[in-house]
Q: What sequence folds into this?
């Protein structure tokens, strides 16, 4: 298996623009997680999907952030409009079971908002 | 929420043992995980321990859990240059949410 795939790997955009990050989980995994990593706040869970349904979005910073999972093999995280403070590395992870067991992380998308 | 604390840096000589310590506040975690992050990469699950265990050994890795003191440690025997990375302690206080510490940057010197 190719592992969790994220695209793009790097994104540079101007403040106010819309940004869409993409994730393909490992085939057969039914749980998907979006995380954000910054120096100041470390790793934060943004949202958790189970069987394509958002279960916990309490970590989503504000209404500018939205996430979707239209099917078992694809998820997006959208920021609109983007702000410089959104600059971070965004990770997608998936797991086989509905739980924290062995989450497999993608390589991340490094977002820079200027 | 869960507070997880780790020391930020550890420098170790190649061939020596590394010990990374972690303290946490929520005692309800069923599983406690250690993840490794190499530069520019995602997190990789290293090992984990079930909360009813005191110790788990996995090749060069030894995990010790002191539930009373809410203390978790990871020992890496015969540390190699490839072990240079950031190590995250991650208790799981509920069935899906990992609480990550800030990470310990391990530097292996020759």
A:
């Amino acid at each position: 298996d190719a592992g969790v795939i994220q695209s793009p790997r790097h994104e540079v955009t101007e403040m106010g623009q819309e940004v869409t990050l993409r994730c393909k989980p490992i085939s057969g995994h039914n749980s998907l997680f979006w995380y954000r990593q910054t120096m100041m706040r470390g790793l934060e869970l943004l949202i958790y999907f189970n069987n394509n349904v958002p279960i916990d979005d309490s970590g989503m910073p504000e209404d500018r952030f939205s996430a979707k999972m239209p099917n078992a093999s694809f998820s997006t995280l959208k920021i609109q409009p983007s702000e410089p403070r959104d600059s971070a590395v965004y990770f997608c992870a998936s797991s086989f079971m509905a739980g924290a067991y062995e989450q497999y992380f993608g390589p991340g998308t490094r977002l820079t908002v200027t | 929420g869960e507070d997880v604390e780790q020391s930020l840096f550890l420098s170790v000589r190649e061939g020596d043992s590394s010990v990374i310590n972690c303290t946490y506040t929520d005692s309800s975690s069923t599983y406690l995980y250690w993840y490794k992050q190499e530069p520019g990469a995602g997190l990789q699950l290293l090992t984990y321990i079930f909360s009813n265990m005191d110790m788990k050994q996995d090749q060069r890795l030894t995990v010790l859990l002191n539930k009373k003191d809410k203390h978790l440690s990871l020992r890496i025997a015969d540390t190699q240059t490839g072990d240079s990375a950031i190590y995250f302690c991650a208790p799981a206080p509920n069935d899906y949410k990992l609480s990550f510490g800030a990470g310990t940057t391990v530097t292996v010197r020759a």
Q: What stands out?
A: Chain B touches chain A at residues 31, 33, 35, 40-45, 48, 88, 92, 94-98, 100-103 (CB under 8 Å). The beta strands of chain B are 4-6, 9-13, 18-24, 31-37, 43-50, 55-58, 61-66, 71-76, 85-91, 104-109. DSSP finds no helices and ten strands in chain B. The longest strand of chain B covers residues 43-50.
